[in-house]
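Running low. Got one?
___
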Amino acid sequence: MKIAKMFLIAYISLFSTVGFGQSKEFRKLKNDAFIVGERLTFDVKYGFVTAGAAIMEIPRMKTISGRESYHITFKVNSLPSFDPFYKVRDRYETYLDKEGLFPWRFEQHIREGGYSKDFSAFFDQRRGKAKTKKGTYEIPEYVNDIVSAFYFARTLNYSKFKQGDRIHLQNFYKNKVYPLDVVYHGTETITVKAGTFDCIIIEPLVEEGGLFKSEGSILIWLSDDELKVPIKVKSKIIIGSVDAELTSYEGLKSADLAKK
């Protein structure tokens, strides 16, 4: 009986710590930037033409892998009037750990013209594995997807940075981990449909998995306050550039948006 009892205790101990990994201590990071209910709407412009609209929002919390997580969605649709020229129906989703600000799951669904791509990954952050339909891959601790990296970047304190400083992140996409540096480019006051804002400028150096099929350099203007709301995004593509400019916002964590 003693042997059986000892075996049972050892078995339970093994699967409650090593097997399921529930005892892993994750980091806890401060987030003064965003909350559930935040909804940001953008005009998407190709040159001087408004070609579409984008919505970035956090509609709900969801428990995933036993952890409370932000369910974040980013959708880009071309306008009906633009569809005959180039129809876009893109959707990205990530599940971002509330306390640690790292992803548990990522989805990408791209429909641009005649091009389509679907990709999803589950991040087993306890075992250091990324699982996709193609296989299972090793990942470093707190690896990001492209959307989770953006929200993580919103929580950083840029007042400590000098122009040209880099934040080193890592982005998993398809079957590989890519470096994802974020370069700080200083401050600027800009005007968009939603108003005039004091902004900081950052540039994510995306190698793979960007928010557009034709990936190129991206500049992001964030409100120069704790919220760091994206005010404008400029993405260079094969010909010209695509701009996304904030038109409306709701559900912010505070009303202290850096608006002039």
Observations:
- The longest helix spans residues 2-19.
- Confidence is low (pLDDT under 50) at residues 1-21.
- The longest strand covers residues 176-192.
